[in-house]
Design goal:
three-stranded antiparallel β-sheet, mainly beta, 17 strands, eight-stranded antiparallel β-sheet, 233 residues, Immunoglobulin-like, 1 helix
Length: 233
């Protein structure tokens, strides 16, 4: 019945067009989306990790200087249970010291630099001082801090090519050559779970370029920037 009605309407409109041409026309678009619950990420401390004043004499002229681990609270709140992952986006492309950036803007930490106890961890740049690369940093959500709806959960990740989720013990957010999705699963599993609240500890560990590569006769500012995006699974 619907198919017949549609055909008849088309014929009727065609006949009308043959006898009465419109003077002008306007398009109407009907759009929208069926979306899951809305989720909002929040960073503690106003979203700033501050290493404060660093004395120039603490830098090596020939080696990279690794700074302490810094942390801040990280949470996600959803209006209803939802499965989500987080993806970091580097806001300081072209500024990584001592390493070659991949397409994500991240590269492997220079030889001899261990961040979170990991050699070759994926790192991004700390901005430029003139033309000089200041350093780099790695970013992680501490796995043992992860709570979903108040229950400890396992950290998992996958590449952005939609490969299978696997367990991670480091919680590192960046990957060298492709975006990494980080999510959370029930302990002992690798399937993302739905939650309304998530809380964890977001950690940063930075390193500074060799002092011989920087002009330390004036202040040098650390200026890293990462945007953490949420995707629905």
């Amino acid at each position: 019945m619907n198919r017949t009605t549609n055909i008849a309407l088309a014929i009727s409109l065609t006949a009308l067009a043959a006898t009465s041409l419109p003077a002008s026309a306007v398009d109407l678009r009907v759009i929208g989306a069926i979306t899951p619950s809305a989720c909002t990420p929040v960073l503690g401390g106003g979203g700033t990790i501050d290493y404060g004043a660093i004395h120039p004499n603490s830098l090596s002229a020939t080696d990279y200087t690794v700074l302490p681990v810094m942390s801040t609270a990280f949470s996600i709140t959803c209006t209803a249970p939802a499965k989500v992952a987080i993806v970091p986006k580097n806001g300081r492309m072209g500024t990584l010291a001592g390493a070659t950036e991949g397409i994500t803007g991240a590269g492997a930490a220079p030889a001899g630099v261990q961040l979170f106890g990991v050699a070759g961890a994926a790192v991004v740049g700390l901005g430029l001082d003139g033309a000089d690369q200041v350093g780099g940093y790695a970013l992680a959500v501490l796995p043992r801090s992860a709570l979903a709806d108040g229950v400890p959960v396992a950290s998992i990740n996958r590449n952005a090519d939609w490969s299978t989720f696997v367990a991670t013990t480091t919680g590192l957010l960046y990957n060298h050559n492709i975006d990494r999705h980080t999510s959370w699963a029930a302990t002992g599993t690798v399937d993302p779970i739905a939650f309304t609240t998530f809380s964890g500890e977001l950690q940063v560990q930075a390193y500074l370029n060799k002092s011989a590569e920087l002009d330390l006769s004036k202040p040098v500012n650390l200026d890293g920037l990462t945007t953490i995006e949420l995707i629905y699974l």
